[in-house]
Amino acid sequence: MYEQVSHSLLNDILNRIKPEISDQDLRHFYTRLGANFYGLHSLFQTLYGHKEDFAEQAQKLVETMAMQYIKRPAQLRQLDLERERDYGWFLSQQWVGMALYCSGFAGNLKNLEQRLNYFQELGVNLVHVMPVMRCPEGSSDGGYAVSDFQEINPEVGTLEDVRKLAKSMRERGILLVLDVVVNHTSNKHEWALRAKAGEKKYKEYYYTFASRNVPDMFEQSMPEIFPETAPGNFTWDEDMERWVMTVFNEYQWDLNYSNPSVFIEMLDIILFWANQGADILRLDAVAFLWKKIGSTCQNEREAHLILQLLKDCCQVTAPGVVFIAEAIVAPVEVVKYFGEDAVIAKECEIAYNATFMALLWDAVATKNCCLLNHSIKNLPVKLERATWLNYVRCHDDIGLGFDDRDIQLCNYDPVEHRKFLIDYFTGKFSDSHARGLPFGQNMKTGDARISGSLASLIGLEHALEHEDHQGVEHAVKLILLLHGMIFSFGGIPLLYYGDEIGTLNNDSYRNDPYKKGDTRWVHRPSIDWQKAELRNSPGNVEFEIFSGLKRMISVRKEIEVFADYNNRELIEISNPHLFVFNRYHLQQPQEQVLVVANFSDRPQHLDLDNLANWRNEYRQLVDLYRGESPEVFKNSLVIPGFSFYWLKEV
Ligand code: GLC
Ligand code: GLC
Q1: Whose CA is nearest to atom 3 of ligand 2?
Q2: Pick from 420, 376, 426, 368: which is nearest to 397 by CA?
Q3: What is the pTM of this model?
Q4: Is the pLDDT score of 220 beyond 70?
């Protein structure tokens, strides 16, 4: 859009631009800057227009984008052009991801590069390498307390290793996802150290207070994220003699985004990582970016404006790079991270589907899909050019963030039901073989979350220990069933490393003084590569799970209607053990795949007569996953216990 004020500001900026920028061939950069400048300027103005040095900051903003564009390697600029043409590239059903810790998976970046064939063997072509940036020794929240955003943790390697890894991945068609921890820094970051030393400029990078007055105001409405290990949201700093806002751990200092310098620094870091070869950047804890007294300090409007501005700027410098929003918040809030009032994503193209994840676990515990069906119906429709990350487990805990009204619709009491789930997954419930641990128990509110590896939560650990063959069989079936859901729901499925070979809980974190207070470490394994070899030997759980997933991945890639174009229709059925949805082709609606899942241990039936578009007595069905026709008696489809189908008409 052409608008005089922003246009004349752009002219001023370009007239004053540094010679090292004006001397370059920046054709594509200027085209994109011109196209985005109106939006970019309005956002920057809304957030920082009242600052005295606004014009200077606007100049710096444009120069930051331009300098990173100049540094952007030719190959990546080429990729930008290709992705600008094929703008829906990340919606394809071809993508299948895995998240991992570099150290736990391979030890270091060089070894990770050596292991790329493992991903190819399984069919994974998108790898999220969790934070590898420099962190202080000791506690670092698994890499999420960064002390230098542009250096690599020496234990895992160097920047050169990252660039080499990115290149090898690109040659093999594997996407690289890296984190940018945008909400906070470690208290050992240079900015924090300079703030501690009294430098005014850096004090303004954080929220610090001389007295408890403001912190106490904030505390009245802010929840606690780590109530056991880091109660409260402020930490007293001896050196500064001030309270610092620390929403997560006390060594993670929240950045002050009301300061435009902070915004520009973090933009520079985002673009820096784009230039190291990341295809996708995962922006950590984005719900927390803006703090306001009297609010929960989550999902504030300004947090969205900051993300929109980051997106606009990234589109100018590195338009091929997309963002993942890590916002583990209620469904109505999470869809806003795609950007509101738009068709295409204006904030983050991808967001974690934590709701679906938690609902799948509810179905496991209850062997029933009541809550899953009700809540999925209420999941707001998302934008067209935006997609979910669907997952079963990740490096974090499982939160039970269901809507109380949905729980009530299933005739459960919300408090009792959540308590049941915690008891179930921590193995306290009489019928349960789960081996999870509570996480983030809050004595004041009664809240709790759950840690534990997929295999241990699902009962595999218990079954193996008791040589319970049927238990093992059930656990394996459930692991495949859960993946059958995230592979077909719509979005990018994201496996969690180790789950593909049934990795159990690992208690060794209890001996580490820096980890023992945080039960999430129980499910952050070091892969035993010798044991992983068992994936090649039939008769082992490693083989059963790995080969099942491998098949599922290759079949998924062939099913075009699994690409995410909001082409899913939930089918209401009367049998509460079943979860049924249809995936269809937008242009040819008769092209469809019916997904049917049975979360009960017993066979269930589905009356094919009453399925809206599926009514046809003479229809011959095939389950694409197994390549076989399912059992049908008269017109009842029979679904064995803990099983699923991807059904197509033949
Ligand atoms: C993100 C990470 C989590 C970390 C938190 C604070 O949510 O996934 O592991 O504890 O941010 O950085
Ligand atoms: C909370 C935060 C999320 C973080 C998690 C870590 O759920 O919202 O961002 O990953 O805590 O446990």
Answers
A1: 328
A2: 426
A3: 0.96
A4: yes
